[in-house]
Every structure is written in structure tokens, then in C-alpha cells.
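Q: Here's a chain of 71 amino acids. Please give me its 3D structure as C-alpha cells.
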Amino acid sequence: LPIQMCIRDRVNGNPVVELQLSVEAAGGQTYTTLLRTAISPVDLPRHQPGMIVEVVVDRQDRQRVVLAKGD
């Protein structure tokens, strides 16, 4: 998933970022969604624009995603 990031706030010293994600579904279909989440400053280098990350998609609502553990 290529990402675009914008820092909006901080929670417990961690930046809250908005990640615009281009999600490629299992069948090859691609769609865009927005994820707002806190990310440790140590992990920010792994979540830069254009990078690919793994997410878990809600089966009931594909717009709801979370970063997979390890990302």
C-alpha cells in the first residue's frame, strides 16, 4: 500500500498521522482510504509517503483498516 502522510496531533508524545492509503485487495482491486493513527517516532521512517505497508481490512467495511502488527 503506497502511503501519503500528514501529522495532525500528538498522543502520549507520539504523532497522530493521517495516512492516505491506496489499498490493493486480494482480488487485485485497488481503492483509496484514510487511516488516522498514532505512530511512535521510532517507526515514522517505515511510514513515509510512497512506502508500502501491510494493513488489515475490516470485512464488513473495507474503508476501515489498521496497520498490521510489525508495520
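Q: Can you summarize the key feature?
A: The beta strands are 3-11, 14-24, 30-38, 55-57, 65-67.
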